[in-house]
Amino acid sequence: MCTGKCARCLGLSLIPLSLVCIVANALLLVPDGKTTWTDGNLSLQVWLMGGFIGGGLMVLCPGIAAVRAGGKGCCGAGCCGNRCRMLRSVFSSAFGVLGAIYCLSVAGAGLRIGPKCLIDNKWDYHFQETEGAYLRNDTLWNLCEAPPHVVPWNVTLFSILVVASSLELVLCGIQLVNATFGVLCGDCRKKEGAAH
């Protein structure tokens, strides 16, 4: 596959994944679909905005750069084999790798530590000492009195962020290698076009 076509496919995969991360992080801010819990009652991992900043904006940029790198050459009809756009995509993809790692780290910590919730009139990270064992024991989830259903809410959304950011990490890594080849070798579409 040509480096340009590959870049376009990767970019078109990264853009929806970044939007999924943004939406998942936005939903984490409203447990049970309500904004009444945002006054100091959300976990630190929600406020670190791993899905919005890392898996979202920091991956959206490389996604767009990869789609652009898969377009026509920087001087019109591919005169430099898209090397200029591929070079931009190399740096953008490296930025995206960092964003995906940030999102994955924050979401993983969010799953391991658990949500901040109210048990026996005390707001705390009550599942932190279990080091993630609470994930397999859903009877513990009902101990949280407020926010309602916060444990399944957090587990579901942080799991989505873990999966999405893992995919982003792989795709950004592939695009980093692909764009490097594109810079060094150019885009084979120019050769294909010349053959017709």
From TrEMBL:
Keywords: Membrane, Transmembrane, Transmembrane helix. GO terms for molecular function: arginine binding. It is a multi-pass membrane protein. It is found in: Membrane. It comes from Mus musculus (Mouse). The keyword S-adenosyl-L-methionine does not apply. PANTHER family: TRANSMEMBRANE 4 L6 FAMILY MEMBER 1-RELATED, TRANSMEMBRANE 4 L6 FAMILY MEMBER 5. Belongs to the L6 tetraspanin family. GO terms for cellular component: lysosomal membrane; membrane; plasma membrane. One of its GO terms (biological process) is regulation of G1/S transition of mitotic cell cycle. It comes from the Eukaryota. This is Transmembrane 4 superfamily member 5. The chain crosses the membrane at residues 12-30, 42-69, 90-113, 157-181. InterPro entries: L6_membrane (IPR008661).
